[in-house]
Amino acid sequence: MKKRMSGVLALGLASLFASASAQAGDWVGQASYYAHRGRTASGAHVGALTAAHRTLPFGSKVRVTNLHNNRSVVVTVNDRGPFTRGRVIDVSVAAADSLGFRSAGVAQVKIEPIAD
């Protein structure tokens, strides 16, 4: 019983820290890129510097920084996703090129919302 309680407590603390991090506005995780054709979830098309995020409002601007090479780019969220576990954002092909991870397919990134 004692082991189970400590596991539940650890899970609760991990959840609390994860939500506090998301509330603080920054995310760290893997990014991928996509070449979506047709309309996005917002009704727009994938643009040169656009992205998909699960929860940020459409039209939000975020700075995505590749933690391997420190390159960053500002993208506009106009789609939902990614739907692959462990990924925090999908960016357009042009954004992946700017961040320097198109050939690798994925990169460890930091995402910071930009205030309008």
From TrEMBL:
<dbReference type="InterPro" id="IPR034718">
    <property type="entry name" value="RlpA"/>
</dbReference>
<comment type="function">
    <text>Lytic transglycosylase with a strong preference for naked glycan strands that lack stem peptides.</text>
</comment>
<keyword id="KW-0456">Lyase</keyword>
<keyword id="KW-0732">Signal</keyword>
<dbReference type="InterPro" id="IPR009009">
    <property type="entry name" value="RlpA-like_DPBB"/>
</dbReference>
<dbReference type="Pfam" id="PF03330">
    <property type="entry name" value="DPBB_1"/>
</dbReference>
<dbReference type="InterPro" id="IPR012997">
    <property type="entry name" value="RplA"/>
</dbReference>
<keyword id="KW-0961">Cell wall biogenesis/degradation</keyword>
<feature type="signal peptide">
    <location>
        <begin position="1"/>
        <end position="24"/>
    </location>
</feature>
<dbReference type="GO" id="GO:0008932">
    <property type="term" value="F:lytic endotransglycosylase activity"/>
</dbReference>
<dbReference type="GO" id="GO:0071555">
    <property type="term" value="P:cell wall organization"/>
</dbReference>
<dbReference type="GO" id="GO:0000270">
    <property type="term" value="P:peptidoglycan metabolic process"/>
</dbReference>
<dbReference type="InterPro" id="IPR036908">
    <property type="entry name" value="RlpA-like_sf"/>
</dbReference>
<protein>
    <recommendedName>
        <fullName>Endolytic peptidoglycan transglycosylase RlpA</fullName>
        <ecNumber>4.2.2.-</ecNumber>
    </recommendedName>
</protein>
<comment type="similarity">
    <text>Belongs to the RlpA family.</text>
</comment>
<feature type="domain" description="RlpA-like protein double-psi beta-barrel">
    <location>
        <begin position="29"/>
        <end position="111"/>
    </location>
</feature>
